[in-house]
């Protein structure tokens, strides 16, 4: 399931819901991304996330579908927030449920890496020196490439 | 075509979206970018270094060599930084 929203979410509740009613699930893995208060030695008080609504949904659905094609997953959830988020706030939540832990761990990692380089979101940091757009990192591209099929 | 701009491309062009007819002689994204560069200060600034601009046609990531036709939704943006 994909949710793109301004509102915060309750990770505990989301995890309960993900596996509720399916006792074939043996493990749930999750990742939460947070707004850090420091970037390149500068204090960051908040971040504003912009996105491309139609395409965000489409890209996240494609990423989720790819994970299901690669691993035996019972359920997946991606929540990504947009708008203004203060330091410490939750930005993104990815959770994967499977009969066995390997699939859940790997698929969760894969979803985060792919999302970072394919989902159309852009972060603007608010610092004491003013607002600035966050630049994409080569290390994120490299992280995505590790999942390329050989 | 519907043309969309995000992040600093939106700030530099001063537009989030606009409707543009595919200019005569333009067949692909790179040709369209060259045409946009000639439209004025904001565009020249936004597309000054086209190598750092990413593009999607009909909400799919594509290369600059991707063909364009009227009716397409074309979006220009910097490399994504979500997650």
Secondary-structure topology with pairs:
The complex is a heterodimer of chains A (150) and B (83).
Chain A: E1 2-5, H1 11-19, E2 27-34, E3 38-39, E4 42-51, H2 53-70, E5 73-81, E6 83-86, E7 90-98, H3 101-118, E8 121-127, E9 130-133, H4 138-145
Parallel strand pairs in A: 1-5
Antiparallel strand pairs in A: 2-7, 3-4, 4-6, 4-8, 5-7, 8-9
Helix pairs in contact in A: 2-3, 3-4
Chain B: E1 2-5, H1 8-13, E2 17-19, H2 29-37, H3 41-46, E3 54-57, E4 60-62, E5 73-77
Parallel strand pairs in B: 1-5
Antiparallel strand pairs in B: 1-2, 3-4, 3-5
The total number of structural domains of chain B is 1
Largest sheet of chain A: 5 strands, antiparallel
Fraction of residues in helix of chain B: 25-40%
The second-level CATH architecture of chain B is Roll
The number of helical runs of chain A is 4
Instruction: Measure the end-to-end span of chain B.
Output: 30 Å
**Radius of gyration computed on alpha carbons of chain A:** 16 Å
What is the N-to-C succession of helices and strands of chain A? EHEEEHEEEHEEH
For the sheet with most strands of chain B, the description reads:
5 strands, mixed
Strand and helix order of chain B? EHEHHEEE
Shape of chain A: globular
Strand order of the largest sheet of chain B: 2-1-5-3-4
DSSP strand count of chain B: 5
Q: Give the CATH topology of chain B.
A: Ubiquitin-like (UB roll)
Radius of gyration of chain B: 12 Å
Domains of chain A, number:
1
| Poorly predicted segments of chain A | none
Pathway (chain A): Cofactor biosynthesis; molybdopterin biosynthesis
InterPro entries (chain A): MoaE_sf, Mopterin_biosynth_MoaE
Protein name (chain A): Molybdopterin synthase catalytic subunit
Family (chain A): Belongs to the MoaE family.
What would you say this structure looks like, in words?
The complex is a heterodimer of chains A (150) and B (83). In chain A, 35% of the residues lie in helices and 38% in strands. The model of chain A has no long low-confidence stretch (mean pLDDT 96). Chain A has one domain: Molybdopterin biosynthesis MoaE subunit (Aldehyde Oxidoreductase, domain 3, Alpha-Beta Complex). In chain A, α3 crosses α4. The two termini of chain A are 28 Å apart. By secondary structure, chain A is α+β, with helices and mostly antiparallel strands. In chain A, strands 3, 4, 6, 8 and 9 form a five-stranded antiparallel β-sheet that branches. In chain A, β8 and β9 form a beta hairpin. Chain B has a single domain, classed as Ubiquitin-like (UB roll) (Roll), CATH 3.10.20.30. Chain B has a five-stranded mixed β-sheet with strand order 2-1-5-3-4. Chain B is α+β, with helices and mostly antiparallel strands and 83 residues long. Chain B has three helices and five strands, in the order βαβααβββ. Chain B starts with a strand and ends in a 6-residue tail after the last strand. Chains A and B meet through β4, α2, α3 and β8 of A and loops of B. Chain A: Belongs to the MoaE family. Chain A: Heterotetramer of 2 MoaD subunits and 2 MoaE subunits. Also stable as homodimer. The enzyme changes between these two forms during catalysis.
């Amino acid at each position: 399931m994909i949710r793109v929203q301004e509102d915060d979410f309750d990770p505990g509740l989301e995890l309960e819901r993900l596996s509720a009613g399916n006792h074939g699930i043996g493990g749930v893995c999750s990742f939460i991304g947070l707004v850090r208060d420091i970037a390149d030695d500068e204090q960051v008080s908040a971040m504003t996330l912009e996105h491309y609504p139609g395409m965000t949904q489409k890209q996240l659905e494609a990423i989720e579908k790819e994970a299901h094609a690669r691993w035996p997953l019972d359920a997946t959830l991606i929540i990504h927030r947009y708008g203004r988020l203060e330091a410490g706030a939750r930005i993104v939540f990815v959770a994967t449920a499977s009969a066995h832990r390997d699939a859940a761990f790997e698929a969760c990692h894969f979803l985060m890496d792919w999302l970072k380089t394919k989902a159309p979101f852009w972060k603007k940091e608010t610092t004491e020196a003013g607002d600035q757009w966050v630049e994409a990192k080569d290390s994120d591209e490299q992280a995505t490439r590790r999942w390329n099929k050989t | 075509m519907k043309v969309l701009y995000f992040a600093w491309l939106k700030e530099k062009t001063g537009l989030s979206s606009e409707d543009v007819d595919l200019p005569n002689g333009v067949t692909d994204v790179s040709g369209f970018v060259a045409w946009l560069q000639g439209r004025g200060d904001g565009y020249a600034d936004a597309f000054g270094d086209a190598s750092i601009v990413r593009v999607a046609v009909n909400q799919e990531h594509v290369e600059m060599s991707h063909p364009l036709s009227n009716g397409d939704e074309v979006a220009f943006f910097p490399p994504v930084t979500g997650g």
